[in-house]
Amino acid sequence: MKNKISIILIILGGLIFSYPFLERAYTYIMQQRALDNYEKTIAEVEASLTDEADEEAYQEFVALEDIFQNSVDLGELPVEESTVEESTEEETPTNVSKPTSSPLNPIGIIKISKIDLKLPIYDGTSERYLKVGVGRIKGTSSLGEIGNVALAGHRSRTYGRFLNRLNELEVGDEIIVEEGGNTYSYTVYKTHIVEPEDVSVLYRNNKDRVLTLVTCDPIETATHRLIVHAVANE
């Protein structure tokens, strides 16, 4: 009886002693499995990319060069606070009302909690849109659709303004896009720096919902483009 108790105690002691090692081994296996699954997903996403981009998307992407350089030359971006001009003249029956700016109607909202970002999304990348939020590069996919939707925005010199902190995003970070009552969650899978004319970042995807964010880099000279790619969480 005593021998049996001794054996049981030895076994229990061995299990207790080996538990930390077994736990680490299990954690390692689970981490490797998760990494393998993630890498497989990314490989499938990139394999689905075509070697072409829409001509309209190409032209608008290249045109960002002038817009980004203008913001560098002007320094800090002015904010468009109002679309209605206030008249300083006293109104009379003969006064003619002054023209007002057309309202800016966003097509969605982008949120990135890691960098405390929340901006309106506009359809197009005109300077007027980019003074307020980010713009969808025309010729790329629509928000929430299968393909590659590209959003461009300024990178203000003021910390936290516009896409100033986009360089802080890392693989695995979440990006939220809201559009027409729908909410889309994306996970970052790649960040890199490219030349201003490298349109490969806009290549179509025929299988997945890919989101591509485009801004200037470095902030002071805007000689290159900082690109963040994310894929929708199905």
How does this model look, in words?
The chain is an alpha+beta fold and 234 residues long. It has helices spanning 2-47, 55-74, 127-130, and strands at 108-112, 117-123, 134-136, 147-152, 174-179, 182-194, 209-217, 224-232. An eight-stranded mixed β-barrel has the order 1-2-3-4-7-8-6-5. It is elongated, with a radius of gyration of 26 Å. The N and C termini lie far apart (59 Å).
Tell me briefly what this model is.
With 234 residues, the chain is of the alpha+beta class. The chain has helices spanning 2-47, 55-74, 127-130, and strands spanning 108-112, 117-123, 134-136, 147-152, 174-179, 182-194, 209-217, 224-232.
Topology-level CATH name of the largest domain: Sortase, Chain: A
Instruction: List segments where confidence is low: pLDDT < 50 over at least 5 consecutive residues.
Output: 79-100
> What fraction, in percent, of the residue positions are helical?
25-40%
**How many whole angstroms does the radius of gyration measure?**
26 Å
The total strand number stands at 8
Main pleated sheet: 8 strands, mixed, barrel
Q: Could you say how many structural domains there are in total?
A: 2
| Neighbour order of strands in the largest sheet | 1-2-3-4-7-8-6-5
The secondary-structure element order is HHEEHEEEEEE
Organism: Alkaliphilus serpentinus
GO molecular function, one term: hydrolase activity
Keywords: Hydrolase
Biased composition (Acidic residues): 79-92
